[in-house]
Amino acid sequence: MVRPAPAGRTNDADGTPRRARRPLGDRLAPFVLLLPAILIILVFRLWPLALGVNFSFTGDGDRDGTSVGFDNYVELFDDPVFRIALRNVGWLVLLLPVAVAIPGLLATFIFLRVPGHRFYRSVYFFPAVLSPVIVGSIFNLLLAFDGPLNRVLGAVGIAPVDWLGDSKVAIFTVVGVHVWATFGMALVVFLAGFATLDPALLDAARSDGASLPQVIRHVIVPGLSRTIQFVFVTTMIGMLTSMFGLIFVMTSGGPGGSTYLPEYYIWIQQGQLNRPALASAASTVLFLLMLVVGLAQVALLRRSGRED
């Protein structure tokens, strides 16, 4: 027997009740609420990005405002300093797992309530509130050739290292300082992710006699897969766009341009050499790098999560 449709509903041919259409205002409400955010993204993000890309195809100096095609991009990739900056981006990508693993492991120990975990939580976050200028100045003193660190190394029989003056070491020194200064934010994100982790899974793993590495690999990492993806992407973006202050204070791009990154190169071209079109081209390359690296990271992490 086919039931009669309730008031406000009609039946399909087979007798299945069909919901009445919602009023137009109810259907448009979500789009109206999203409209301010969409307008902000369009006006303050996408439109300036499009203007910058368009500007990168114009000339500088005597050719200001005239179309030059891909000349700026050809000049970019012919510039050995910009190629060094791209090489350093490659080093950042290789060092990224370390930069993510450090706050991840520390957050794990805090979550497992190691002795003093409350104290560590506040101490680990403290560097994140310091200005890059302050951080860079402090480490300039600590890492000077005749500074405290090299004196400690000398006391144990290790030759001093020119942390900021050796072209083979300087970029890793600056990256290490950046990781120290910023991992507190990633730590907070990981701790927020731990709040969503099912404690029953941890209890079950402990009951089965799983060791800490096994708990991390088989329970914590799969349970925090989305958090890990987020931290990977945001940490990479931070490395590519937030190291200017440290580079400026600690090395000024030296020695020999070995600590250049694209953002520092952009500032030199725009602020020092007055070449805004070339700087726009470098900005476009930097944007594409962040987009490709971010999408590749998410794809790899999702695939590894499915395999686990």
From TrEMBL:
Transmembrane feature ranges: 28-47, 89-112, 124-145, 169-197, 230-251, 277-301
Record region (Disordered): 1-21
Domain of life the protein comes from: Bacteria
Keyword line: Cell membrane, Membrane, Transmembrane, Transmembrane helix, Transport
Compartments where located: Cell membrane
Key word Chloroplast present: no
Protein biosynthesis as UniProt keyword: no
Residue stretches making up the ABC transmembrane type-1 domain: 86-297
InterPro entries linked to this entry: ABC_transporter_permease, MetI-like, MetI-like_sf
Matching Gene3D superfamilies: MetI-like
Pfam families on file: BPD_transp_1
Membrane topology designation: Multi-pass membrane protein
Main location: membrane
Family assignment from sequence similarity: Belongs to the binding-protein-dependent transport system permease family.
Name assigned to this protein: Sugar ABC transporter permease
Organism: Luedemannella flava
